[in-house]
């Protein structure tokens, strides 16, 4: 296993204990962080993607965008410094780095739609081998539909990374030939970081880039609902 | 002499009429003009179409306006958030209409409405259910959908500072939708924490020029929505 530089914060020990093999949520975030280059402008989705910022290797300067109007988002502030009018897209308190800028929503999405943001890291319900992403609705009749900025991000950001468990809690495949849930965007995903593997979306389908320790190709293939390409 | 200052929130929202379209600033509680919303609850206008990113939380602010039966339709991107039950319950019961719009498309529709642009094309939502029934066209080899500009009869927004002519500055991420909503409404009503004389705001740092602002009311210490929600407060 590689041991990426960790900037701060211990790993989620509760989850670590449950994990028998494969990558933990923290390690999935570490894997994605390795692929964020120096100087990138990055938007991180809610959930595991938020953890990515902790693991960007030292020496790389990365500027975080949050779609509610801040470029240069910093870490969670101490309780004394919390301002409820300085929040991220998940509506949690954040800080602003030296050199940050505030702007209104149309400018914020011009940064997204105008292809100025380099990388967006998002969660997923399903990803198809063509790079289609479904992450906003199961299509259930009684669900309250909510999309937020996800469709704008996947349509506008240059490169889309997905971090997700390889299967659902029930063991159903999330990586499929075609998504069964309503799409967030078509042909938008570049790379997927799961608990079992790092996967590249190519014109020929899902190609394994790296397998997690203790995980072999067949194990991942059995949990994927379309054919995988060997590394 | 131009005077946009109103004595009270009640006076500022007095002429909002039944069936009006009302844009309300805020992303969650950040930037939400809670005192203006509460004044609108007291005022009682019904069958409103409300444009906001969310649908409020707890039983105060926007959630209280909805709970009070004043909103017939919501146009928003994310109608369920933490502590949000009012809208989801009414929606499931079929008692309120929802137009779901991707957040960036919502922002651009508002900006376009305020800029006199009736429609535009975007790649956002292509291939998703939210593009169904919309006009599609290919530009630069990529499929786009047509989206319409949004306008409103009134906008309710919050600022950090307002001068006599209506020039505004905001506080951090509380800016969010306020500047574009101010442009898109016939009457823009601002609650400001600080009211200053013309010239007190450096023209270089004015965010919303006063031409987009019609009424100003001073609310020096606005209520914090999450504190009211945590305390279990219901309005009225």
From TrEMBL, chain A:
Primary enzyme class: transferase
Ranges annotated as biased composition (Polar residues): 1-10
Coiled coil: none
Gene3D superfamilies (alphabetical): Glutaconate Coenzyme A-transferase
GO molecular function, one term: 3-oxoadipate CoA-transferase activity
Span list, region Disordered: 1-24
E.C. number(s) listed in UniProt: 2.8.3.6
Tagged with keyword Transferase: yes
Alphabetically ordered keywords of this record: Transferase
Family membership noted in the UniProt record: Belongs to the 3-oxoacid CoA-transferase subunit B family.
The name this protein goes by in its record: 3-oxoacid CoA-transferase, B subunit
Organism per entry: Shewanella halifaxensis (strain HAW-EB4)
Lineage: Bacteria, Pseudomonadati, Pseudomonadota, Gammaproteobacteria, Alteromonadales
Automatic annotation (TrEMBL), chain B:
SMART domains per record: CoA_trans
Keyword vocabulary terms for this entry: Transferase
InterPro entries named among the record's database cross-references: 3-oxoacid_CoA-transf_A, CoA_trans_fam_I, CoA_transf_BS, NagB/RpiA_transferase-like
Domain of life: Bacteria
Gene3D superfamilies according to UniProt: Glutaconate Coenzyme A-transferase (3.40.1080.10)
EC category: transferase
GO molecular function list: succinyl-CoA:3-oxo-acid CoA-transferase activity
Annotated Pfam families: CoA_trans
Record-listed E.C. numbers: 2.8.3.5
Family affiliation: Belongs to the 3-oxoacid CoA-transferase subunit A family.
PANTHER family, A to Z: ACETATE COA-TRANSFERASE SUBUNIT ALPHA (PTHR13707:SF60), KETOACID-COENZYME A TRANSFERASE (PTHR13707)
Protein name: 3-oxoacid CoA-transferase, A subunit
């Amino acid at each position: 296993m590689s041991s990426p530089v960790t900037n701060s914060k211990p790993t989620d020990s509760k989850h670590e204990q449950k994990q028998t093999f494969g990558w933990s949520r923290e390690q999935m975030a570490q894997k994605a962080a390795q692929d964020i280059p120096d100087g990138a402008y990055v938007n991180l989705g809610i959930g595991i993607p938020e953890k990515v910022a902790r693991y960007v290797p030292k020496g790389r300067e990365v500027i975080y965008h949050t779609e509610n109007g801040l470029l240069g988002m910093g870490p969670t502030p101490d309780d004394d410094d919390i301002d409820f009018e300085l929040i991220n897209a998940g509506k949690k308190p954040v800080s602003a780095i030296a050199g940050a800028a505030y702007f209104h929503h149309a400018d914020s999405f011009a940064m997204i739609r105008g292809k100025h943001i380099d990388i967006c890291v998002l969660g997923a319900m399903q990803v198809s081998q063509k790079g289609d992403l479904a992450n906003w609705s199961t299509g259930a009749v009684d669900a309250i539909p909510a999309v937020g900025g996800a469709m704008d991000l996947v349509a506008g950001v240059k490169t889309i990374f997905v971090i997700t468990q390889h299967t659902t809690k029930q063991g159903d495949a999330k990586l499929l030939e075609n998504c069964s849930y309503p799409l967030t965007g078509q042909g938008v995903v570049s790379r997927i970081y799961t608990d079992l593997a790092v996967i590249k979306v190519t014109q020929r389908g899902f190609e394994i880039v790296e397998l997690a320790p203790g995980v072999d190709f067949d194990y991942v293939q059995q949990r994927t609902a379309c054919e995988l390409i060997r590394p | 002499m131009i005077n946009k200052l109103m004595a009270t929130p009640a006076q500022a929202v007095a002429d909002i009429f039944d069936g009006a379209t009302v844009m309300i600033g805020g992303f969650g509680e950040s930037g939400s003009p809670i005192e203006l919303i509460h004044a609108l609850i007291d005022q009682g206008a019904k069958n409103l179409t409300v444009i906001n990113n969310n649908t409020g939380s707890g039983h105060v602010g926007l959630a209280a306006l909805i709970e009070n039966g004043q909103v017939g339709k919501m146009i928003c991107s994310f109608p369920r958030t933490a502590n949000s039950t009012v809208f989801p319950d009414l929606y499931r019961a079929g008692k309120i209409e929802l137009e779901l719009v991707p957040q960036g498309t919502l922002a651009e529709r508002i900006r376009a409405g305020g800029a006199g642009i009736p429609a535009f094309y975007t790649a956002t939502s292509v291939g998703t259910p939210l593009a169904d029934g919309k006009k599609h066209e290919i530009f630069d080899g990529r499929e786009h959908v047509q989206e319409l500009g949004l306008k409103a009869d009134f906008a309710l927004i919050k600022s950090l500072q307002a001068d006599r002519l209506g020039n505004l500055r905001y506080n951090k991420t509380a800016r969010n939708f306020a500047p574009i909503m101010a442009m898109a409404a016939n009457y823009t009503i601002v609650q400001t924490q600080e009211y200053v004389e013309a010239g007190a705001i450096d023209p270089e740092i004015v965010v919303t020029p006063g031409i987009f602002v019609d009424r100003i009311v001073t609310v020096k210490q606005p209520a914090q929505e999450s504190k009211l929600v945590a305390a279990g407060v219901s309005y009225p």
